[in-house]
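Deviation from plan, reported transparently: tryptophanyl-5'AMP complex.
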Amino acid sequence: MTGKPRAFSGIQPTGGIHIGNYLGAIRNWVLQQDQYDNIFSIVDLHAMTLPYDASELRSRTIEVASALLAAGIDPQRSILFVQSDVREHTELCWILGTLATFGELRRMTQFKEKSKGSERVGAGLFFYPVLQAADIILYDAAVVPVGEDQKQHIELTRDLALRFNNTFGETFVVPEPDIKPAGARIMSLADPTKKMSKSDPDPDSRIELRDPPDEIRRKVRRAVTDSGAEVRFDEERKPAISNLLTIYSLFADVSIPELERRYAGKGYSEFKRDLAEVIITGLQPIQQRLDELAANPGIVIRTLQAGAARARALASAKMAVVRERCGLGLPPLD
Ligand code: TYM
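Because the crystal trials were delayed, the predicted structure below was used instead.
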């Protein structure tokens, strides 16, 4: 399309998007839009791997797409589509599943965490990373901008791409993860040893993109802090304040040493009061665009339809090559 390297990333339409998703992934997608040939997907098939409510999935898909558009994903510069609208993802997932091993899938941290304590562990949850690998290599993505928690899945993706190439001949680009040093692991406001997560039962552990200003002020005020009173970055000894400093620094675009200087001799409460305002100001334009899109869902649906058509064209051309390499289907008539 443009000669630029291709970037692919995805997000699940489960629950409200939080500032961890925003700072770890979405914000980087938006900032890097001119650097790459971009494809972003709302991965609804992945969202089926844990029990879910079918009547809500479609509305969540539209909500997440709206949030991405509101955050600045520009359909002129990026393909934005819903994963299940492009059937080739599931076809390639099957093919890659024949190359993946039981042992490597069993070792996936996310699988171990999400299956912990459940009596019935769906095979879809086990196969989840294979579908993710298919998402990425189907488009020959070179770069995958994600948060830290996805690193292991991208490593598996690289292994599967290499294994396919070694087995059937050079076919796929082997992608690199793009994980930023700051913001790739935003922690829970209620417990700085856990990552901020959509599935955390405590809604005060995360700030969602749609939270109104007073809700943000309340959540920041209640956020856990460390002992002592000094606003200083030290992930070992002060994990809670270090997390809040990271959030402040990214929203305000001010370095952490500069923030430490500004808040030297001031207590946590003044720091937290300012932090809430910085988050509110950062989210305000996104929330305004979200309101505009909510009044006009047709725009979002049409954008996703157009995105799916563009993604399908790329995916079907790639799968024609893959089928041939694997010996699937009929030979051409001569
Ligand atoms: P998902 O929907 O859980 O999260 C979307 C993106 O947000 C990042 N993220 C975080 N970053 C920093 N701090 C946090 N606390 C935090 N929580 C989430 C995630 O790393 C991710 O980048 N398996 C993926 C979806 C997926 C995908 C793909 C991603 C499916 N196919 C292909 C990349 C490429 C997931 O569950 O993301």
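The CA atoms of residues 96 and 211 lie 40 Å apart. We consider this an acceptable substitute for the interim report.
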